[in-house]
Amino acid sequence: MNYINCVIPVRGNSSEVKNKNFKKIDGTSLIERNIFTLKKSKIVSNIIVTSEDSRFERICDLHKVHFVKRPQKLSSNSIMPDKAVSHALNIFYKKNKTTEFSAFTQCTSPFLNYNDVIKSFEKVQKYKFDCLFTSYKSNKFIWRQSENNLMKAINHNKNFRLGRQYIKKLEVIENGALYIFKTKKFLNLSHRFFGKIGTYLMPEIRSIDINSQNDLKIANSISKKVKNEK
Asked: CATH code at 220?
């Protein structure tokens, strides 16, 4: 059986929702939900939490997962998680065996479940992807604002309108829950997308990403419904 190592990048100084990663859904904090999901998948050999906040180190000790202290220069709002994940993996792999594939999750996507993790990795192996991201299917009409506030149709012909069911090409929205990638290439680039890129589809109802108080309220309100979703 093949295994992956997975990083959870979290910050203590979240801006829109203070202490966001400690917020609870169904009585369990976002960071702990993520840890439990990865452990339950059985294919994650090591879980590595990276943060500038020492409060997460205590949680890691409690749940027997690894903690890497993130430098302050990698902890601002302007820094994408790729850099922090690369830093954590470089430190971890200095003392531990490197797996062919590594991953990172974002615990602000609370409805990622262990089957998503398993099936995502199975898909990577089956189709020989270099990297994969989780997403949900979209058949909505997409427009983009261009110069002078004019709108341009992106995925449809504005002059010949059909129902959404006639949008034939698969279009997906990245949901931020899970990313899997070839370890060595990722560490070389410090970027999650390269080579042959695949996706694993999750239901839209389980693809919420918590970035505001309203998102948190919605997540709590639908959590019981989501438990029955595959």
From this structure: 3.90.550.10
